[in-house]
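Priority: medium. Attachment 1 of 2:
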């Protein structure tokens, strides 16, 4: 096994045509800051042009898969910074990491080793296959922060679990366990925690052994059943430009940091 990229917040290992990307910020449960997002985009874009990569496994350093945005660094800011990001950074970042995953021509397996919350669940949703540890949990908590999910959830989740169940999870912000995720068809299987990487790696190697060009066309065909990402991404970007500047978003983020229930005012 060889190191594929030398990065700060991600570990990347290449073995037998399988690239394993491990989110590696365990001190914040693998929450993603701006640098981590940039590294994630770099990995998926780089894999598209590397013939030594035929399948990708994404996982996290225990105890979590990914707890979403690093709230302290990304979501909580002063009014001036929120306004600036609503005009520039948010529009630049939103959808970019989703597109990097969805447009990568290699099959992607999410090996969900623990909680996948917020954008952590979105990352799993963008994968082609999801295998869960029995310790995994899934939740789209955006509505509790005065926000909405990124484009990947709107484009992919209804097709995976059905529109009614997707709406339930998005509107409620409820967290479900691995067994429920398997029951509704969100994950293809649940395995004991200690067997997760072995099971995901074995599947990845079987995929990587197949004809690479056929596999790429297979993925392209599967993606064609989803709505166009550009249309959804542009809409989400505009919505975030509004929502990031609201009092409700600031209240939701502050309540999260203070470990209390938010009090939303609708403004």
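Attachment 2 of 2:
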């Amino acid at each position: 096994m060889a190191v594929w990229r030398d990065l700060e917040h991600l570990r990347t290992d290449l073995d037998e045509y399988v690239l394993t990307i491990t989110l590696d910020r365990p001190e914040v449960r693998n929450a993603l800051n701006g640098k981590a997002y940039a590294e994630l985009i770099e990995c998926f874009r780089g894999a598209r042009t590397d013939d030594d990569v035929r399948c990708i496994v994404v996982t996290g350093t225990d105890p979590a898969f990914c707890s979403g945005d690093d709230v302290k660094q990304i979501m909580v800011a002063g009014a001036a910074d929120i306004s600036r990001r609503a005009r520039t950074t948010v529009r630049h970042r939103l959808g970019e990491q989703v597109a990097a995953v969805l447009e990568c021509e290699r099959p992607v397996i999410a090996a969900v080793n623990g909680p996948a919350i917020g954008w952590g669940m979105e990352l799993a949703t963008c994968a082609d296959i999801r295998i869960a540890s029995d310790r995994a949990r899934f939740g789209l908590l955006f509505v509790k922060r005065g926000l909405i999910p990124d484009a990947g959830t709107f484009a992919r989740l209804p097709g995976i679990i059905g529109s009614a169940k997707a709406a339930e999870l998005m509107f409620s912000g409820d967290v479900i366990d691995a067994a429920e995720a398997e029951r509704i068809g969100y994950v293809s299987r649940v395995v004991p925690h200690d067997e997760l990487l072995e099971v995901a790696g074995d599947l990845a190697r079987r995929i990587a052994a197949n004809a690479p060009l056929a596999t790429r066309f297979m993925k392209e065909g599967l993606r064609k059943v989803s709505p166009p990402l550009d249309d959804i991404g542009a809409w989400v970007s505009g919505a975030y430009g509004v929502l990031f500047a609201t009092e409700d978003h600031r209240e939701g983020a502050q309540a999260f940091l203070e470990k209390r229930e938010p009090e939303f005012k609708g403004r």
